From TrEMBL:
This is O-Antigen ligase. The keyword Transmembrane applies. Keywords: Membrane, Transmembrane, Transmembrane helix. It comes from Nibrella viscosa. The keyword Membrane applies. The chain crosses the membrane at residues 12-31, 37-59, 71-89, 101-118, 125-145, 172-189, 196-214, 220-236, 248-269, 349-373, 385-404.
Length: 446
């Protein structure tokens, strides 16, 4: 019994290290900027990530290796080598080689350690993910409450800077909310989940949904809707609807629905203005999506006034215009690209073509397509818990590869390592999930 507990705690330790790397930025912002431990320090970020790497090192490091997705492993490694080669020999942009080299070493170290992480982290990954996201969400809520400049209606993010230069990054908090929502739902719908666990998981999922709306991240909302659509297409049929109906009318199902409903009603009773806040965010999201679509179509609003793109969308339009000019007037330059970090495109896939050339673009885009094939296959056919989590996480991240950031940023590279390790591989031992019941349980040491 003690051996089993120690083994589970060891698995949770490795899972914690994984989440510190792929979802640690909300806590980094909270500690650095809100608690003022190291404002604006990139050194603190590097140390935080290094701590995550150390925490996730298995006791059996290098004694037992686990096979990743070999094809995509070599694709990712080739892309990293291509990026570093351009950084040293074809640098036409900012010169931050030392910092970039440290970050590349972290990505490679993460990939190496992941190959040593056992498949049995599947047993704990969603529990640790749900609780880790909860801690990050609570840190965000604390920062918002304590920030006198933040009011309901603004995007939820930890702001830093002085005066008019105060800014924040709501996208890392929206990603955290997505991770928390998926982990909570998978945890709640485990085949052996009791009433308390299932209710707690559903409450956590709803809480993460609220945080997602508060961040007002269009890319995150869009990717969540895509994931929901894929899940519905994969699972909503006559048989599942009948099973769902039977579960809903069972005593357990009724209890599970009533507990979150009563808790929400009590919250509404204490804060009757909450409906107005929810509707205001809903209308704001709708208006922002609508204005961007109309602006892209060169249309005008119903009030006959001009509609405008927001700053991020406008930047991407400029990027596509730049790419179009390059294609029309300098197509031959795209063979090798314009150089490492030559132009900030805010569209990672497009930046690989403009900066890293055709080969870099093919490496990156082929890798993304192969990941998507594996993710969709898992969503439709079912899988063990870590497969489902990684598949949905990839759907969330996939949209970001077209809507924000740079291809060589750690925030975009670290998840790719996780996908290489756990997406599209063979698992010799299986754990039942709520999407697939024909699985056998693995033996647990101790």
């Amino acid at each position: 019994m003690i051996g089993r507990l120690i083994y589970r705690l060891d698995l949770m330790r490795m899972c914690l290290g994984i989440f510190l790397l792929i979802d640690g930025f909300p806590l980094i912002f909270y500690i650095k900027e809100f608690l003022r431990v190291a404002p604006g320090s990139t050194t603190f970020t590097a140390i935080f990530i290094l701590v995550g790497l150390i925490i996730m090192i298995p006791i059996s490091m290098f004694r037992k290796l686990y096979k990743p997705n070999v094809t995509l492993f070599w694709f990712l490694l080739a892309f990293l080598v291509w990026c570093m080669a351009y950084m040293f020999f074809y640098n036409r942009g900012d010169n931050e080689r030392t910092k970039d080299l440290i970050y590349y070493s972290y990505v490679i170290a993460f990939l190496i350690i992941l190959v040593n992480v056992p498949n049995t982290v599947n047993r704990e990954i969603v529990i640790v993910g749900a609780l880790f996201a909860l801690v990050s969400n609570l840190a965000l809520i604390h920062a918002l409450i304590a920030d006198p400049t933040w009011t309901i209606g603004q995007r939820a993010a930890i702001l830093y800077g002085e005066g008019d230069n105060r800014t924040g990054n709501p996208h890392v908090f929206s990603r955290n909310a997505q991770i928390g929502m998926v982990c909570s739902l998978i945890w709640a719908y485990r085949s052996n989940a009791g009433i308390f666990v299932r209710s707690f998981g559903l409450i956590l999922a709803f809480f993460n949904l609220i945080i997602l709306v508060l961040t007002f991240s269009k890319g995150a909302i869009l990717s969540t809707l895509i994931a929901l659509g894929l899940f519905a297409a994969a699972n909503f049929n006559a048989k599942t609807m009948r099973n769902m109906g039977r579960q809903l009318v069972s005593p357990t199902g009724i209890a599970i629905m009533l507990i979150p409903f009563i808790a929400f009603q009590y919250f509404i009773y204490k804060r009757p203005d909450i409906w107005g806040i929810i509707l205001s965010y809903g209308f704001a999201i709708y208006d922002r999506f609508s204005e961007n679509i109309l602006a892209l179509l060169a249309d005008r609003s119903a009030n006959a006034g001009p509609v405008e793109l927001d700053a991020s969308s406008a930047n991407r339009v400029v990027s596509f215009h730049f790419a179009n000019l390059a294609l029309e007037g300098h197509a031959h330059r795209l063979i090798f690209g314009f150089g490492y970090k030559f132009q900030y495109m805010d569209v990672p896939v497009l930046e690989t073509l403009i900066c890293l050339g055709i080969f870099g673009f093919l490496l990156y885009s082929t890798m993304l397509v192969k990941f998507m094939i594996h993710a969709v296959r898992i969503i439709f056919k079912g899988g063990i818990e870590i497969e489902l989590f990684i598949a949905f996480l990839y759907i969330f991240v996939f949209v970001n590869y077209f809507t924000g950031g740079r291809p060589y940023e750690m925030a975009n590279l670290l998840p790719l390592c996780l996908f290489v390790r756990f997406l599209g591989i063979y698992y010799p031992d299986y754990v039942p999930s709520f999407l697939s019941s024909a699985r056998k349980l693995p033996a647990v040491p101790g």
